[in-house]
Amino acid sequence: GDAHLGPDAAPSQLNLRVGESELRLQGRGGDAPDLRLSLAPLRLQDLLPEVSGELRGDVRLTGSFDRPDLQASLEGDSLRQDELRIGRLSLEASGSFDSGSADADMPLDLRLSLRDLA
Predict the structure, then answer these.
(1) Which residue from 6, 75, 103, 111 puts its CA 20 to 30 A from 52's CA?
(2) Total domain count for the chain?
(3) Domain range for 96
(4) Which residues does 37 contact at the CB level (< 8 Å), separation at least 6?
(5) pLDDT tens, position by position, 48-98
């Protein structure tokens, strides 16, 4: 892959290829992060040989360093591990959390759709 890194608040980019998978991290860090991780696509068998299928989508982190917001939109096709098979997966998630808190609870809005489950 290749990387373009700047200071904490400057735009940055990291492109990573593993097998046929491509992961892209773009954005900026600092006190007001705006980071996006794109799976374009992520072929699961490239990272975990016992799992197969493909994930595409984005995970975004925004807000402030002390209270970041998380948004995720992922689609999966032909997911399989051992006897578990999912033909199609759709996931939408959003939430905020307090990074300075020892409380592991994080309010999370989650919408999950599974099709062709076997």
Answers:
(1) 111
(2) 1
(3) 2-117
(4) 23, 24, 25, 58, 59, 60
(5) 999 999 999 999 999 887 788 999 999 999 999 999 999 999 999 999 877
Region 109-114: mean pLDDT is 96
Q: Taking phi first (over 0 means left), then psi (-120 to 50 degrees means alpha), and beta for anything else, what does residue 18 get?
A: beta
Residue with tokens 């990272």: 47
Could you read off the pLDDT of 13-62 as tens digits, one per residue? 889 999 999 999 999 877 788 999 999 999 999 999 999 999 999 999 99
The helix or strand, by DSSP H or E, that contains position 44, with its residue range, turns out to be helix 44-47
Alpha-carbon distance 114 to 94, whole Å? 18
Least Cα distance to 41 among 80, 74, 1 occurs for 74
pTM of the model: 0.81
| Residue 112: C-alpha distances to residues 5, 39, 51, 91, 93 (Å) | 34, 18, 20, 5, 8
- pLDDT on residue 6: 47
